Amino acid sequence: MVAPRLAAFAMFWFATSTDHPSLTFDDRLALHALRAAGASAAPLLWGEFPPLLQAGDIVVVRSCWDYHLAPLRFLAWLRALEARGVVVANGVETLAWNLHKQYLLELHREHNIAIPPTRLVRGGGSATLGELMAELGTTQVVVKPAISLSAHDTARYLAPSAEVEAAFAAQCARGDMLVQAFVEEIEHGEYSLVFFDNRYSHAVLKTPAPRDFRVQLDHGGTHGAVDPPPGVVEQGERVLAATGGSHAYARVDLVVAGGQCLLMELELIDPCCFSASRAARRRHGS
Questions:
Q1: Whole-model pTM?
Q2: Which of 56, 60, 72, 278 is deepest in the core (most CB within 10 A)?
C-alpha cells in the first residue's frame, strides 16, 4: 500500500495491545504529528470495534506485540476490519503473509535473498535436532517459532543431547518452528533499516547483551542510531523489492556475515521504527 495522503481517510487509528493502551513513545510521536497536520487520530486496542470506527478510516497496526499468542484471532480481526470498509495499512494479505516466518524461505527460494541456513519444521514433526544440524552443516542452531516476536520461545542449542532433543521436541509440539544455523556475527549487531513508502529513512544497530544472541531490549539488548556500512541499505531495498509491493512502513533486519547481508527478519506488521533514536541523533548533530 502506498503511503496515503492525510485527506484520504476520515480517521487514523493506531492499533495497539492492552500492554500499551496509550501507545509507545515512538507511536505517540506519529500520533501527535498527524493531529498537528489536521488529521483525526486515536489509539485502538486490537480486537475491538469502537462505535466511531467506520468505513473509510485507516488502521495502522503498531504495538500489537501480543498477536503471536492468538494469531488466528488477530487475522480474523484484520479481515473483519477490511469487510467493514476500513483500510488496513500495508494490506491484510501482506500482513497475513508476513505473519509466518516461512516468508524467509520463500524470499530465499524465489528471489535469492540471502538468509541463514534454515529449515522449517511443521508442528508435531518428527525430525530430530541432530538430523537438522547435520543437514545445516552446523553444531549451533537457533530455534524459534514460525509465528513469534521479541524472541518469544527462542533458544540457542549447541549440541543435540538428550535434554536438548527433549526441549526441541516440546517446542515442535507447540507449533511450526524455524531451525537456523547460528550466525556468530550477531554478536557485532544487527542492522534494522526503517523504510516509509519503500524509501529508506534511518537505521539502528541492535546489539545483544554479553554472552547472549538476542538483540531485543526485553533480553538485555541495546540499540543506537547508525549509518550502515556500504551495501546494507541496498540489500534492504532489494528485500522490499522482492515482495512486489509498496509498503507504508517496513523494517528490514540484516546481519553482515562473511561479506554478505543475511536477512534475519522483514517486519511489515507492527515493527518498532526507532523514531526516538533517530530524533535523538538529530538533536546531537550526528
A1: 0.90
A2: 60
